[in-house]
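Morning F.,

Quick status update on the modeling queue. The single chain you submitted on Monday has been processed. Sequence for confirmation:
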Amino acid sequence: MRLDRQRRDRLGLIEAIWGEHKSAEQIAAILLELAADGDLALVTRICRDKAAAVAALVPALSLDYHPQARGLSCGPLPAAETDLGRVAILTGGTSDLEVAAEAALALACHGVASELVLDVGVAGLHRLLDALDELRQAPVLIACAGMEGALPTVVAGLLPQPVIGVPVAVGYGVSAGGQAALTSMLASCAPGLTVVNIGNGYGAAMAALRILRGAADRDRR
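Structure tokens below.
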């Protein structure tokens, strides 16, 4: 294994381990190396059974499993940095919660507060409109949606903040495992909408983090 030990110094991001296609033994070995450096680590896309197997292999490590996000953190999460503000994470429906929770966990691992704003999909547009005043307070918005993926476009057309769209693999037939939502978001007529890959809550969180830290750095100058 060749870990990216300079990632935090270079980018300000902790190491993230893709857990779905790694064995418990491989994940445990990586966590032991990172823990030896005294660094926090995040494992994404890991089921409860595999997380339990990892914990059994490294009983000396402080591990926390986050079931909604399918994530495993190693080490205490930092306190939220108040000067960065909070990220609002929207979902079209409850089926998008797993991806939204992954984004929230990834932000928490970097000291960024977030708030989940659930079930504001365009099928009941009044729900989103009722939340606009609250959403205006967040410096960055992450919008997770399946089906046709219209939520990020509508949000980006109503609010001025950076909006990051996350296609979710939810929907019938031609939704095609999130392809329809992805294509819809990429073809959005809302200028400036940023789109990450299907189900990539982690990537959306890191985009939000870069935006927030860039703004904070400019304010300090």
